[in-house]
Design a protein that fits this description.
The chain is built from four helices and four strands, in the order H-E-E-H-E-H-E-H. It is an alpha+beta fold. The longest helix has about 60 residues.
Length: about 170
């Protein structure tokens, strides 16, 4: 391909080529600016989608626990229990159940896959066990371990639980 030196052409040709080159350079810069803008828009769109997905995930999580709480609140009279385990001295699980506390202890032993079973240290019959459980957990928050486990003296836990237990009608 031969390269022509347009600057030796008549003035109107040089002016036309210079105008065309100027338009191409300006267009190239506009194209670069447009691509940068579209990348920013796409990044913002992705961030919005991610945020929406996270919010949806949070909503599903809160809906799930809202449903669990709704079921638990319907239990009007059953048991608050304190469980112990030989592998966790000084750590106790405090919860509620609508079934026999021994059955619940056996179930939890299976869930946690421990080599020996939880033992029921003590249990109390109560009205509104879920509400009572939540109040007890809040009162014992300083002793909390992950989940519904608490570290401390059984006698202290007994006193707190007995203070919150509501007599069933």
């Amino acid at each position: 391909m031969d390269v022509a030196n347009y600057t030796k052409d008549p003035d109107f040709v040089v002016a036309a080529v210079d105008d065309a080159l100027s338009i191409c350079r300006a267009g190239r810069q506009k194209y670069i600016d447009l691509v940068a803008y579209l990348r920013e828009v796409e990044k913002g769109h992705r961030a919005a989608l991610l945020s929406a997905a996270q919010e949806s995930s949070y909503d599903e999580y809160t809906d799930k626990w809202g449903a669990v709480e709704a079921r638990h609140v319907q239990v009007t009279s059953r048991f608050i229990y304190l469980l112990s385990h030989e592998l966790m001295p000084g750590i106790h699980k405090i919860g509620f159940t609508s079934r026999n506390p021994d059955t619940r202890a056996a179930e939890l032993s299976q869930v946690h896959k421990l080599p020996s079973n939880f033992t029921v240290t003590k249990y109390w019959r109560t009205a509104d066990p879920y509400i009572v459980e939540q109040r007890i957990h809040k009162k014992l928050d300083a002793h909390r371990k992950p989940g519904e486990f608490f570290q401390g003296d059984c006698e202290h836990f007994f006193a707190v639980i007995e203070k919150h237990v509501m007599k069933p009608e």
